[in-house]
Amino acid sequence: MISTLALISTSSTVTGDQAGSSLASLLTMIIPLALIIVFFYFFIIRPEKKRNKEMQNMLNSIQVADEVITNGGIIGRVLSVKEDTVLIETGSDRTKIRVLKSAIAKNNTVHEAPAEPAPAKKKKGKDDKPAEIK
Description:
This protein has two helices and five strands. By secondary structure, the chain is of the alpha+beta class. A hairpin with a 3-residue loop joins β2 and β3. It is flat and about 80 Å long.
């Protein structure tokens, strides 16, 4: 009975070498998993968020008289814009179709982006002297 307890107690204690190998096996399991998560974030999740943000900006910037293409391939000119719908006119027969903003795939009209202010030039004062050339 005592020999059985001694055997159990010695088998349950982990030596320093075994602890190091269990730590190494744990790291070899966690590092690839972490690399996969980082890969998914940078190559799948982040670009998708960027595309969604660009699409939302495009939908919010739709104006009257813009030429748009719907997801179904209908090309038309915007007649009115409401909160979540857009009225478009298609073809020469002037057919009017009301579609959801989310159904618009592309805005073919190019809008001018607001110009960025040019950096202000520093005015020369009395104390400003050109560098001497030696």
